[in-house]
Amino acid sequence: MRSNVNYKIAFWVGFGLHIVYVYSRSRILSMECINPSCTSLYLADVPLSILYLAMPPAIIIVASFALGSILWGLYSMGLMRLLEKIFK
């Protein structure tokens, strides 16, 4: 029987990793990406990045913080489930 606590922890780990990733790829106070085209943020949030493809960098950073972090949390939960299936 799997524990929901493990999935919650996995979600928050993925969420936190993405926050650190976005923080390291952007200048938060000036709301601009370190590289000119924000490609690292597009690639990190591939399925969702189509939503904010033609937006200015400030919206890309905010959307990546919100949507991308949730996405990474869900990916982390999926990876946890996969590892449970493999090692049980």
Explain how this protein is built.
By secondary structure, this protein is mostly helical. The protein has one domain. Helices cover 66% and strands 5% of the residues. It has helices at 4-25, 39-44, 57-86; strands at 26-27, 32-33. The chain has a two-stranded antiparallel ribbon with strand order 1-2. It is elongated. The mean pLDDT is 87.
- Shape from CA axes? elongated
Please, what is the oligomeric state? single chain
The total count of helices amounts to 3
Q: Spatial order of the strands in the main sheet? A: 1-2
Beta-sheet strand percentage? under 5%
Give the proportion of residues in helices: 55-70%
Sketch the topology as an H/E string, one letter per element.
HEEHH
Helix and strand arrangement:
Layout: H1 4-25, E1 26-27, E2 32-33, H2 39-44, H3 57-86
Antiparallel strand pairs: 1-2
